[in-house]
Amino acid sequence: MTTSGQPGRDEAVFCQRHPDVETALTCGRCGTPICPRCMVHTPGGIRCPDCAQLRRPPMYELSASDYLKAGPTAVVAGALLGLVSALLLPPELTFGGFFGLLIAFFGGSAAGAAVGEVVQRATRAKRGLGMQAMVAVGLVFGYVVRLLIGGGLDLVVGDFAGLLAFAVAAGAAWSRLR
Questions:
Q1: Where in the chain are the domains?
Q2: First-to-last CA distance in the chain?
Q3: Under a CB-based contact definition with an 8 Å cutoff, are residues 170 and 105 in contact?
Q4: Whole-number Å distance between alpha carbons of 77 and 163
Q5: Tens digit of each residue's pLDDT (9 = 90 or more) over 108-157
Q6: Which of 11, 14, 28, 159 has the smallest CB count inside 10 Å?
Q7: Residue 69: closest CA among 146, 121, 20
Q8: Nearest Cα to 110, choosing from 177, 169, 178?
């Protein structure tokens, strides 16, 4: 040690959490010696794990009440989507022609974004994997509603336009809730 109480240039400094690792890094906030294994990159520079304490944004912190709001909302929105799609583009149309596929693609994209938005509004802008899963369940339910209204579950094999629409809807909703 030097006369100031600080380590000198030639003295070895060791990580506080890993005493066997020599380091030249220090926490940008408290000055604690840290090694590359325990340093945390933050917007304000490198920090020790105690000073970093990064928190997830509130929109990704999900509670049981968020799931209780998102689940029924996604199922109702999916069922409405299934009803509307069964009426606009019935499952009996094997491919629905070129325009049927265009309607399925663009309609599915808009519908998926709408379902994602409805779930976001119901949960006060919550996002993340849990919300994405809720919307996926709602869209599966909507596709089943579409097939039941259109004539039965056995139509799933020939309902290419419906499968395309719901796959695109799932992708749009998934990306909206990322």
A1: 1-54, 58-176
A2: 52
A3: no
A4: 17
A5: 899 999 999 999 999 999 999 999 999 999 999 999 998 898 887 777 77
A6: 11
A7: 121
A8: 169
The Cα 128–Cα 168 span in angstroms is 19
CA-to-CA distance for 58 and 110, rounded, in angstroms? Answer: 27
Distance separating alpha carbons of residues 157 and 17, to the nearest angstrom = 60
- What are the beta bridge partners of residue 41? 46
Taking phi first (over 0 means left), then psi (-120 to 50 degrees means alpha), and beta for anything else, what does residue 94 get? alpha
Tokens for 148, please give them.
């039941």
Instruction: Please give the pLDDT value at position 4.
Output: 47
Of the given ranges (71-75, 97-101, 111-115), which has the lowest mean pLDDT? 97-101
Q: How many Cβ atoms from other residues are within 10 Å of residue 117's Cβ?
A: 14
pLDDT at 10: 65
Residue with tokens 């590359």: 36
Q: What is the mean pLDDT of residues 155-161?
A: 75
